[in-house]
């Protein structure tokens, strides 16, 4: 890891968090909700400027930022407070942060893919002699994978990942001549093949995917599919976490993310490739942040959305206004648990670095 790569990784990671808060800020302003302070970074302020109702600040610790809205977690008489806004406006404000992360991730991936001349597609192209998976009755050369075990195949990476974690039989959906064909419990056993270059025996399926030239017209669709692929990979990771296929040791916090981003940059052959690698990884992290923040967990935006919808529904039925402090206590408890989890993950990441 170099000092520059570490600095760039911290700056990029902080920028992604700041973009998230900027989404809340823009949505609040458009909804006429009072924003008391909008800050870039955390800690003591090194610059402050009051403009209208909002204090704009730059703080000294280069991590994230925040958007402090009037009446966000407590009741207030201010007619322009967060609590006084219509429920649908509050919902838009809450999801706007994740929305900005997803947009930022899409743009960062598009910047990266604009430098690529070709990309792999999940279409069977080359078939080795002895491959039993591709046969006259089953999969054919030129078949495009659409689904594997119920998961959508957006890119070749999806197909490789799903095939890697699949069993000896899988539910396969492919596109052939414009039509979709389904194969249930299709045998996907690997066989032993000899590597022609090294002469070593290898276990593999016996087919490979083709490549397609990157064009200006194909850039946006491919970036969109890659974004959807990243979103799906988050859900796959969560599924592995809850089923025990992955544990806390496989989770990275800010320290671990910065290290991975720094290592990614350091592994590049030159300065330009290092920047591009960081841009790609930044897009991946931005999409992850966007999806994770929408999880229905107290203190996260998703949990706040669930709380908003529940309280709005209860108030519509009972015709009584609920005390916003109750929801605030729930989110405060969730925040404490998240901070404890983050502390554990940070300790693990730091320990891993020193090891």
Q: Into how many domains do the coordinates divide?
A: 2
Describe the sheet with the most strands.
4 strands, antiparallel
Cα distance spanning the termini: 15 Å
**Secondary-structure content class:** alpha+beta
Task: Give the strand order, joined by hyphens, for the main sheet.
Answer: 5-4-6-7
Output the helix-strand order: HEEHEEEHEEEEEHHHHH
Count, helices: 8
In angstroms, what is the radius of gyration?
24 Å
| Backbone shape | globular
Described by its quaternary structure, the protein is single chain
Poorly predicted regions are none
Counting DSSP E segments of at least 2 residues, the number of strands comes to: 10
Bin the helical content: 40-55%
Give average pLDDT, whole number. Answer: 84
Architecture overview:
The chain is of the alpha+beta class. The strands form four sheets. It has a four-stranded antiparallel beta sheet with strand order 5-4-6-7, with helices on one face. It has a two-stranded antiparallel sheet with strand order 1-2. α4 crosses α6.
Secondary structure elements and pairings:
Blueprint (H helix, E strand, L loop, with lengths): L2 H28 L4 E17 L2 E16 L17 H27 L4 E10 L16 E5 L2 E2 L3 H10 L3 E8 L2 E9 L3 E4 L6 E4 L2 E7 L2 H28 L10 H13 L4 H22 L8 H18 L5 H31 L1
Antiparallel strand pairs: 1-2, 3-10, 4-5, 4-6, 6-7, 8-9
Provide a concise account of the structure shown.
This protein is α+β, with helices and mostly antiparallel strands and 355 residues long.
Question: Features of this protein?
Answer:
2 domains, alpha+beta, 355 residues, two-stranded antiparallel sheet, four-stranded antiparallel sheet, Pdz3 Domain
């Amino acid at each position: 890891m170099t000092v520059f790569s570490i600095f760039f990784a911290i700056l990029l990671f902080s920028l992604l968090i700041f973009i998230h808060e900027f989404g809340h800020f823009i949505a609040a302003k458009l909804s006429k909700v009072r924003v008391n302070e909008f800050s870039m970074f955390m800690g003591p302020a090194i610059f402050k400027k009051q403009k209208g109702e909002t204090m704009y600040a730059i703080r000294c610790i280069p991590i994230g930022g925040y958007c402090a809205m009037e009446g966000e977690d407590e009741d207030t008489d201010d007619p322009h407070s967060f609590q006084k806004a219509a429920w649908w406006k509050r919902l838009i404000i809450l999801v706007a942060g994740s929305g900005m992360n997803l947009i930022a991730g899409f743009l960062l991936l598009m910047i990266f893919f604009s430098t690529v001349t070709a990309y792999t597609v999940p279409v069977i192209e080359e078939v080795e002699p002895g491959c039993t998976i591709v046969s006259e009755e089953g999969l054919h050369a030129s078949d495009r994978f659409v689904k594997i075990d119920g998961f959508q195949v957006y890119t070749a990476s999806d197909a490789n990942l799903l095939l890697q974690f699949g069993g000896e039989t899988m539910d396969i959906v492919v596109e052939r001549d414009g039509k979709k064909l389904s194969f249930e419990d299709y045998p996907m056993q690997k066989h032993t093949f000899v590597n022609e270059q090294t002469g070593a025996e290898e276990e593999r399926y016996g087919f490979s995917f083709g490549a397609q030239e990157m064009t200006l017209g194909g850039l946006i669709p491919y970036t969109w599919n890659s974004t959807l692929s990243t979103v799906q990979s988050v859900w796959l990771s969560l599924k592995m976490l809850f089923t025990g296929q992955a544990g806390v040791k496989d989770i990275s916090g800010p320290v671990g993310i910065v290290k991975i981003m720094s290592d990614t940059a350091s592994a590049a052959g030159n300065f330009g490739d290092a920047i591009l690698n960081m841009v790609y990884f930044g897009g991946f992290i931005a999409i992850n942040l966007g999806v994770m923040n929408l999880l229905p967990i107290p203190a996260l935006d998703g949990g706040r959305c669930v709380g908003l919808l529940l309280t709005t529904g209860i108030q519509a039925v009972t015709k009584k206004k609920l005390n916003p402090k109750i929801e605030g206590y729930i989110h405060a408890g969730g925040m404490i648990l998240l901070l404890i989890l983050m502390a554990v993950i940070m300790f693990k990441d730091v320990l891993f670095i020193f090891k």
